[in-house]
Amino acid sequence: MFFKAAVFVTACLALAASASPAQKRQQLAQVITQCTVPNTVALTFDDGPWVYLYDVSKALVAANATGTFFFNGNNYACIYDADEIKRVRYAYDHGHQVASHTWSHKDLNTLTWDQIHDEMWRVEQALQRIVGVVPAFMRPPFGNYNDLVRQASFIRGQKVVTWDFDSEDSIGATPAQSENLYDNIIAQRPSTILALNHEVYETTVHQVLPYAISKLQNAGYRLVTLSECLGLPAYQSVGPPGIPDASWQC
């Protein structure tokens, strides 16, 4: 199923008509490591959709803020499960940005060209089916990418996104340690912050997130989506969602 018709449909969004196939293959996607709009913070959440998504959204919305969810297709659960579909739609319908974290959270640096595209297009297809959008941003699992990944992302019309602040929840930080990391970065008063968090940890969602929201807003930052903190479109295309059928499976 690697690199089939769906790959080329999405890829066409990014190709310049005058470029040769060899030229297209050699072009590298832009790598985003920080926000560019002053006084903004993009709180991003990886590895979902998961059970705590609703609480992430509610905490943000209550603070008149938005966030960005980098979704996998088949990591903690299959994105086509009924509960997962509801979570994706809930995030999108409540004004948050949805983006790609690849299909199954593999280290892209270890994959072939066709395997990289398979990891990318399957989650893109899922997001297009579920909420009608083709994401403009992809976050590689573990933050790992090489030129092959950047070439594939360019062809797919996407920018590669990492971060400039890590709450370290995925590497064992306690809530107190994550909160201390937020305190430290706020004390440095950078113009912008692109923050990495994970929606799959209960303590991140119920302890660290409320703390971070309060501290960041008290410091005068606006909490916005990734696209807003960059001044760029969140999606390559926006259309109507699909209707679930037998092909919606992992």
From TrEMBL:
Domain NodB homology: 39-224
GO cellular component: plasma membrane; side of membrane
Record bears the keyword Protein biosynthesis: no
Keyword field: Carbohydrate metabolism, Cell membrane, Cell wall biogenesis/degradation, Glycoprotein, GPI-anchor, Hydrolase, Lipoprotein, Membrane, Metal-binding, Signal
Membrane topology qualifier: Lipid-anchor; GPI-anchor
One GO-annotated biological process of the protein: carbohydrate metabolic process
Gene Ontology MF annotations: hydrolase activity, acting on carbon-nitrogen (but not peptide) bonds; metal ion binding
Compartment(s) of residence: Cell membrane
Record's signal peptide: 1-19
Cofactor requirements of the protein: Co(2+)
SUPFAM superfamilies: Glycoside hydrolase/deacetylase
Coiled-coil residue spans: none
UniProt-listed PANTHER family: CHITIN DEACETYLASE, CHITIN DEACETYLASE-RELATED
Protein name: NodB homology domain-containing protein
